[in-house]
Amino acid sequence: MYLIDGPVQPRKISELIEKCVKNTETGAHSFFLGVVRSDRINGKSVKAIEYSAFDEMVKVEAEKIKTTIFSEFSDVRSIEILHSKGEVKAGEISLLVLISAGHRHHAIQACSKTVEMIKENLPVWKREIFEDNTYYWKQNE
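Structure (tokenized):
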């Protein structure tokens, strides 16, 4: 599973952590949580982001990302990626990346690279919604 409806809930994060710590071959877990910011753009505050995606393309690209990470970081044992679809309010979590590895160095580096690859390659589109309900389509930078 890569896409979930709405924000990533804390209970889902807890479930993934419980799952990954059961693997006694891993000694390090690095995770990234992306949260919707209430940026001010042209005097307007962002109240939410609506994410849309083509599910099958996301699956294909996420698998490519995982294959790349596993090939570059031999110590990585597991990769979890959850990205929101639909509306996520400011302050809510829209992206989770959890990397488990034998050692911290690989876990941290692989997590960082995974996030960068997601931002560059995952076909997810963002519509920032302002407090006055106007919006614009955001580009990844």
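The chain is about 35% helix and 40% strand. The beta strands are 3-5, 28-35, 40-41, 44-53, 76-89, 93-101, 124-130, 135-138.
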